[in-house]
Each structure stands twice: as structure tokens, then as C-alpha cells.
Amino acid sequence: MIKLTERLSAVAHLVRKNSSLADIGCDHGFLPVFLLERGIIVSAVASDVNEGPLNSCRDLVKEKGLENKIKCVLSDGLRGISENECSDIAICGMGGEMIANILSSCEWLKDSSKHYIFNPMTHPEILREYLCENGFEIKTDIIVKEGRHYYSVFDAVYTGKITNHPISYYYLGNVRNFEHKEYFEHLLNYLENKMKGGSDLTDVIAAIKEKL
To answer: Measured by CB atoms within 10 angstroms of the end CB, which terminus of the chain is less buried, N or C?
Structure first.
């Protein structure tokens, strides 16, 4: 059976039982195969913008005999996927700004029955701000350590309610566990350097220091 990295394990944990998954940026297809092997999802669409990773995904799907359960699609974001093909959407392995762009270019995403799981590799604050300003509510929000690196993983639902938060929220989100001190120390260093360039991030820095 497929074994996931810590990062993808955190993503998998947020996928709803008996859902149909769209895995955007599927890479080798480990996530949908893992979830199907364990009976968590009933079907999946695996999408990638690059032919190479998608071919690796196709090979894995064929090896596992899951061709009738996983559809592999060459697609830029969600452009090649229809709304009736998925109830849960995972968008992982790309920057927060790119994920926000993918969301903004899809007309059917503002649906309260859909469930979204995100793993922005950079700038999670940009994605959190986009979600809040476009009617999405962020739910579980965690920091995951994998090797020497730290990653943000969080999920969201569409409510239609526009919310304005202090800027500190976009950096900290709904994170409740602050045990990964190194991640927040690195974030502090990043913000303090931005302050030197003229950005006013005093409140964010104070909010992070309060948690440490």
C-alpha cells in the first residue's frame, strides 16, 4: 500500500469519508491512490499541468488496478474538471498566490457542498486573505514538519460571508498548535526583514511573539 509523507498525510486526514476527490497538482498520484486503497474516497480526478508527472500518476493508477476509480487529466488548475466530478478538492504543492489564481478562474467553486484542502508551499497568508475576502471560511489549520521543512495545511468551506481580519490572521490563520517554534521564528525573521523594506508588520510580529 502507498505510504504518504507527513505533508500529504496531513492533507489526507482532512479529506471527507466517502467523498469524490479532485487532486490538483497530483504529481505522482500518491494521494488519491492512498485514499482509495483505504476506502476513504469513492473516486478521484487526478490533475496536473505537466505531462511528465501525470504519466507517472497514470502508471501508478494502472499498477494498482484503479483505472475505473481514478481519472487522470492534463489540466491547468481546475479548467479540465467539472463540478459533478468532485466533492472534495485538494490543491497542493504550489504557492499560495497560484492557488488563489486557480480558485479565481473557476466559476463553480462557490458551492457550500464542496470542501477544499490546501497545502500552499509559499505565502499561505495570500491564500488565506483571498479565501476570507471571497466568502470562504477556513476551518482546521495546522503546521506540519517534514524533514527540515515546515508546511501549512488547512481546509475551507464556502459560506458566502465576506470577513475582514487583522493582517495577523492571514499569517497565523486558525493555527492552535504552536509547538513548531522554528517555523514561527523563521516567519518572524522574514517579517522583520520586510519591516526594513518599509512594510508595517508591527501587529503581526507582536501577535506571533505572543504565541511563542
So the answer is: N
